[in-house]
Amino acid sequence: MRLWLALARRGYQRYAAYPGATVAGVFTNTFFGFLQAYILLAVFRQRESIGSYDASDAVTYVWLAQGMLMTIYIWGWYDVALRVRSGDIATDLYRPVDFQLLWLTQDLGRAAYHGLFRGVPPFLVGALVFDLRLPSDAVLWLAFAVSVVLAVCASFAYRFLFNLASFWLLDYRGVGVLAMVASTFFSGMIIPIAFFPGWLETLAWALPFAAMVQAPIEIFLGHARGLELAGLLTLQLGWASLLLLAGRAVFAAGTRRLVVQGG
Amino acid sequence: MVEAPTILRIYARLIGARIRSQVQYRLSFALNMIGTALISFLDFAAILVIFEQVDALGEWSVAEVAFLYGISSVTFAATDLAIGHIDLLPEMIRKGDFDLVLVRPLGSLFQVVASDFTLRRLGRVGQGLVILVVALTQLEIEWTAGRVGMLAVTVVAGSAIFAGVWIAFSTIAFWLVDSLEVANAFTYGGNFLASYPVNIFGAWLRRLVLFVVPLAFVAYLPSLYILDKKDELGLPRALQFASPLVAVATALAGGLLWRVAVRRYRSAGG
């Protein structure tokens, strides 16, 4: 247990080392938050509600999504791909620690930092300027916290998976960019899934990405209660487990054919 | 001072070498270019989703917003292609590579701009052009010489405005080396912002993009003239023709800020 805590702390400290970058990042998230909030408010000047969203839900969604952005680290993460490419993976393989769990633990530490310092501040600014909707009771807050952790796990498992492409392909970035396009759009990061036309909404909920952004936001907004809430958390747990298991299988296949040049 | 033709020749050589190295791996290059185009397409996908739900956004139809998006994307992508690697400046400062720039007998801004060239960013230009052309076929514009001329002028002026803004904000790195994301808010964020009608934004933001960071002149104001739309903000009509002037001023301001910043630069190394 001490080992895992130490690993998580490393993940946290790696990002905590650059407070200047954090402040700059919060500035940018906040600026984008304002832009998106104004756009969605313009939408709700034309309509009272879309799906389960009213104007207040939509603006809350904007600031939550900005907070989730870095917490689940949806964009460019190539740490594992780079280790395969450089051959450093060879040293990782004879460490007495499970490779995937090692990275997952570090990523949870990283997410703790980003959640606190990149996620919370833009939301607070948003709450000062706009009329945001907060969870009405402690159960929802707790469910939201659990949901965010599951979202990080699912997102990590997905990133780990597409990083493993570097075992087979020279150009892991091409795959990474395509993977990122899919997750950014279908996770509900740039526009709520509830705004999608029916068929696209169905598709989005059938894909793993909704578990990474939209699910925690639905819980925060109180759109899912009781059984529905339990269903959302189960969905997230399911995708996180499935993607982690897929990652393990692909990693095993990759290491079997791995040839590291060395001298 | 090195003369202009020599500078152009050096630029062509440097960029030529970069391009040749990038197209060596064809599949990899193709994937990267498609990926770049797809990422920038996501912002347009969001616009399409919004117009699934409503017919107008601040009195602008989907074709009209697509027009704004097209202009903003093409101008931003052209600027990104030409000077986007100015984003590498913080890294150059951190590593001490900027010291090398200062001892060479060429302008420092030129060297940073010519230090790299990412051809896959052409994918972004192409994506913006496609949307712009589609928008033009959907709109019923009464084409006059003035409107055609305005469209051409707008693309050039918009690129210059983005370039000035990009250079100006990148100079923050001379004071705060970790500041890249602040610049991103006005470059990538500026592109996002300029794709929407300015009249939907809050008052402080409208003032900001009219008077401080002149992003309203990239697409919104000239488009009012080209599309013959009523300005919901009731701004003076002369502003619709002011983009070229604003572009010159913004580019000059960017260059001036760069000079001031470089003069007070002190190396990180010891």
Number of helices of chain B: 12
Distance between the termini of chain B: 29 Å
Question: Main sheet of chain A, how many strands, which sense, barrel?
Answer: 2 strands, antiparallel
| Largest beta-sheet details of chain B | none
Number of strands of chain B: 0
Query: What's the shape of chain A?
Result: globular
Query: What is the mean predicted local confidence, pLDDT of chain B?
Result: 91
CA gyration radius of chain B, whole angstroms:
20 Å
Summarize the structure.
The complex is a heterodimer of chains A (about 260) and B (about 270). With about 260 residues, chain A is mainly alpha-helical.
Question: Could you please describe the fold and organization of this structure?
Answer:
The complex is a heterodimer of chains A (263) and B (270). Chain A has one domain (2-261). In chain A, helix 1 packs across helix 6 (99-129) and helix 7 runs parallel beside helix 11 (226-256). Chain A has helices at 2-16, 19-46, 55-71, 79-86, 89-93, 99-129, 138-163, 172-186, 198-206, 214-220, 226-256, and strands at residues 49-50, 53-54. The longest helix of chain A is centred in the middle third of the chain and has 31 residues, at 99-129. Chain A is mostly helical. Helix content of chain A is 73%, strand content 2%. In chain A, a hairpin with a 2-residue loop joins strand 1 and strand 2. By secondary structure, chain B is an all-alpha fold. The two termini of chain B are 29 Å apart.
